[in-house]
Amino acid sequence: MRFMIIVKATADSEAGVMPKPEMFETMGKFHEELAQAGILLDASGLQRSALGWRIRYQGEQRSFVDGPFAETKELIAGYTLIRTHSREEAMAWTRRFPNPAIDGGEGEIEVRQLFESEDLEPSEALARFLALDLPSQSS
Question: Locate the YCII-related domain: which residues (predicted)?
């Protein structure tokens, strides 16, 4: 089972305020523990939304929207992707996730399970999609 630990953005992360070295050290140690346990798949911080964009869809039409985006509480500042044997194991690890707030104040993470091929209805389109050699599908 794969889970994405989503680090919610804050006003500081959206302003481009970098975490203190201690936070990098704490998060690095936690990611090392995940790696040593054999469950870390990927982890990274994201640049502020001012450097990003969105594509909005209206049927087949697309529109381009440049960042920044106003609703900080709806934005993501980083993620950690793990593979565990159970939801309970994922919950145990995420309870130990360091506070991601830059100032050590209020922070929040959200954890979401990823779909696996066995969760989806088999079809020719799914088979073609799964046959693609996408980095995110490697284990």
Answer: 1-114
**Amino acid occupying residue 127:** A
Indicate the pLDDT class of residue 133, thresholds 50, 70 and 90.
low
Q: What is the DSSP letter of 137?
A: G
- Write down the pTM of the prediction: 0.83
CATH assignment of the domain containing 30: 3.30.70.1060
| pLDDT of amino acid 127 | 73
Question: In total, how many domains does the chain have?
Answer: 1
CA–CA separation, 95 and 135 (whole Å) = 28
Two tokens, residue 28 = 């690095």
| Residue the block writes with tokens 């998060």 | 27
The rounded distance, in Å, linking the Cα atoms of 6 and 43 is: 10
Look at residues 47, 27, 3 and name the one whose alpha carbon lies nearest to residue 100.
Answer: 27
Query: Which residues on neighbouring strands pair with residue 83, listed in sequence order?
Result: 2
What six digits make up the tokens of 50?
Answer: 């001012």
Lowest mean pLDDT, pick from 11-15, 24-28, 60-64, 107-111: 11-15
Q: Which domain, by its residues, includes 57?
A: 2-137
Q: What is the DSSP letter of 127?
A: H
